[in-house]
Amino acid sequence: MTVAIVQRTHPILRDKAREVPLSAIGSEKIETILRDMKAALEKEVDGVAIAAPQIDVSLRIFVVSKKALRHIAKKKAEEGTYEDLVFINPVIIKISKDNKLMEEGCLSIRYAYGKVRRASRATVEAYNEKGERFVRGASGLLAQIFQHEIDHLEGVLFTDKAKSLKELTPEEWEGMVN
Ligand code: ZN
Fold it and tell me: How far is CA 112 from the centre of its chain?
């Protein structure tokens, strides 16, 4: 059974998530949370990424789906195998001044879409699921994902920032993602 993704009015989405103690990385508790996050992502056809508060866990973790990484690689005509990418205690250490309005949605705000101004490039430092520190730079969609997910950890939703927000019916949404 997969865990449910909490929806827009759930108060946990507005909390500032807590840091994961480094000693807890690799523990049964954190492994279970990561498993639940990946399973919840897998279930959503448009699941590019998820933050822990979206499965009702107020911890600083987000996961980018292999689906999203494959999609980004395809656009660059790169090939390879992709795994879900785990970011624990992520911090943006570098962000570009140039930005653009990007179309955005959220697994917790069905079925709203809007344009959000996001930096074109961002670099994040985080810990992986083995507790190793790493740095990942990104542009475009992945940079947008970093900013959207870290906003979640601060209790910020894209609808707080979006321009020209539109609400789709479930039927319109079906038509869009399929
Ligand atoms: Zn979201």
Answer: 16
Is the model's pTM score more than 0.90?
A: yes
pLDDT tens, N- to C-terminus, the chain (178 residues): 678 999 999 999 999 999 999 999 999 999 999 999 999 999 998 899 999 999 999 999 999 999 999 988 888 888 888 999 999 999 999 999 999 999 999 999 999 999 999 999 999 999 999 999 999 999 999 999 999 999 999 999 999 999 889 998 888 888 877 6
Going from the Cα of 107 to the center of ligand 1, the distance in angstroms, rounded, reads 5
DSSP H stretches of helix in 1-87: 28-43, 66-75
Q: How far does residue 29's CA lie from ligand 1's centre (Å)?
A: 23
Closest CA to 45 of 71, 19, 20, 16: 71
Measure 81 CA to ligand 1 centroid, in angstroms.
25
| Biggest alpha carbon–alpha carbon distance for the chain | 45
Q: How far is the CA of 49 from the centre of ligand 1 (A)?
A: 8
Question: Ligand 1 (ion): which residues have CB within 5 A?
Answer: 106
- As annotated, the active-site residues are 149
